[in-house]
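Example 3.
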Amino acid sequence: MTHKHFTIDDQATLEALLMHRRDVRGNNFLPDELPQEAIDQILYAASLAPSVGFSQPWEFVIVKDPDVRQQIHQSFNAVNESAASEFSDEKQALYDRLKLEGILETPVNIAVFYKPSAEPVLGQHSMLEAGEYSVVCAIQNMWLMSRAMNIGMGWVSILNPEDVKKALNAPENHKLVAYLCLGYVKEFYATPELETLRWEKRKEIESLIHQDRYPDSYE
Amino acid sequence: MTHKHFTIDDQATLEALLMHRRDVRGNNFLPDELPQEAIDQILYAASLAPSVGFSQPWEFVIVKDPDVRQQIHQSFNAVNESAASEFSDEKQALYDRLKLEGILETPVNIAVFYKPSAEPVLGQHSMLEAGEYSVVCAIQNMWLMSRAMNIGMGWVSILNPEDVKKALNAPENHKLVAYLCLGYVKEFYATPELETLRWEKRKEIESLIHQDRYPDSYE
């Protein structure tokens, strides 16, 4: 057996990274430039992700151009207004106080696309989403590597994907999986902001686990 | 600034974990039981994942029952036969030699579901997939925590999700995101098996990165 053996200290390091990773928004980013080596290291982490049939179906657009970012930000504004109206009055008041993205506050945005394969992909026959899911694994790798470098990352999902694709001149068959904002931070919060503000409660893990099958009584 | 600062050594540990994580199949698993504490730690890692609007939309079914696993394995066999026929004769010959799952060889399987929220979710308005994607982030956390504990994990996507839901008595509105096989291993391969066997080539990361927008010449 020649493979790498990880230690209990390595496990503790990973656990700390998972615990201290945060979704960072514009109220917590610093405008300082990110070194190219940091961006390269984050994309390298993405490339180490698992992918269905080793298809590596990810593509990345590094967005620094202010005009492009303004277009993306306009899409955020339009969607955000419509999204806010879904909530009760009480929640809307809180929603309106939240800063939910850092598109313009960060030095770098990264759009992450899923590029469907022209050929059949091993393992992507009955569960077609496996391709997109591979891209999400790459994004989580990016998030953790960013945190290990004390760099913040935020995932903006309040966007119209078609607007983003147009702004980025993306091919029609590519699917936008994530739009990410990256930069150094003022602070990594100790807990998720939405937990601190009691927008949602943390679920008890035990309540989310079933043994062998769902009980008939499940609701 | 009171938040946790990670060091260059922590970054190196994470990089090693990302590099040495493998998708493990039935030809490399050992039948030894996993301690309950190990399973708990892996599920704890899942619970630390980011989720859209802090919705934590994941549920887990820990499958040990041999009868349930036989049913899942039958689904694999049926889909696998149909999947193999997609490939050219040459690739089919290689495909038939591959062991692509460890449903019966592992001591524990974990089915991971996305449970849609009955209420609106912050950030899940224009990109509805953000819920499922949160579940995938949790799965990547599980994969990395398993590897840190020198436990192998394999993701089986060659399944009919409806068969799996039926075998697990899953609620109709839950979506199967992943079916995972976990156990100790004979070996973690140094590189992905599909890369070693030249099923697919590793892509050069530079070819997957664009600056500010896709070029008009992109194909």
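The radius of gyration of chain A is 19 Å. The longest strand of chain A covers residues 175-183.
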